[in-house]
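Hi, here's the filled form for the chain we discussed.

Project: internal
Contact: R.S.
Residues: 339
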Amino acid sequence: MNTKRIQYLDIAKAIGIILVIIGHISQNEIITSVIYSFHMPLFFILSGYLYHKGNTKNKIKKILIPYFLFSIISYLYWFFIEKNLRGQNGDAVTLFLNIFIARAGSENYLFNAVMWFLPCLLITQLIYGGIDNIIKNKYLKALTILLLSLVGYILSKMEIFRLPFTLDITFMSLLFYFLGQCLKSIEEKYKLVENINKSLKNKLITSIFLVILFICLVGLVYINGPINMNEMKYNSYLLSVLNACIGSAIILIISVLIKNNKFLEWVGMNTLTIMCIHEPIKRVIIYIFSKILNVDQAILRTNVFSILFIGLILLIICLIITMALKKIISTIKKKKLKY
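And the returned structure, exactly as it came back:
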């Protein structure tokens, strides 16, 4: 199994997680709508690009261990400290049980809204792996995944109770995961990365192309409205998928153009930890800044400059915690080896 990291994919993950952080801080309608139109599909596309037939047990362990660890820590912090401060009425027992049932939706993960992503990614990988093993014809495979995504879209319009193990979102995330695999096949066949690097010789053309893509993205967001995978809000099926593809394409092209950025590569390699810890920390930072500046939180979360500043502070704190956790894990592993 090839475990060599792909530089531009790590950079794309880094840009993606920075957008996730900004998107979760922001209550600015324009910023939130644009980011939400593609930021989570981007991660499913990147994961699909990296799909390989491998050790299923190892895949499960790599996702479930951080999921349960960070979910329980977040829950305990919420239950003993934050619940009363925020005046939330969520049922503590139901929320705790949902860690194991994994029904998506912010109301089911009050303690850490982003945790839905990990079980959804795992189930997406497992289902896609099953489809990939059973259906060998690539056109039949594509049709199957397309039909499943339409089922997911129909479920989003029915407003029924949320399915366990994030299955209601998984029908849609499968499509993005599959698109990641398609992107990999196209890259291997047509050498897209090599051609993008060649286009650097004419920076004007590259810049114009990116501007056109961004205008298309914003235009589609304006037409289609906000998208939210966690809450199953897609509006138009076609426009939502198109939005996700255009936004992801912009990030991937920028990631290819950025070369040898060790900082972004490192951030990209640690997106899972940052994803899991940033949400509770975000709420604390916003609360502290609102008290220090004597400004309503809503104002902080709509002003572009305060959104970016809080985002920067949050990213730095998350990186420090990530480095500390890696150091602790490394120390534990060394002690185990000694014995």
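Let me know if anything looks off before we file it.
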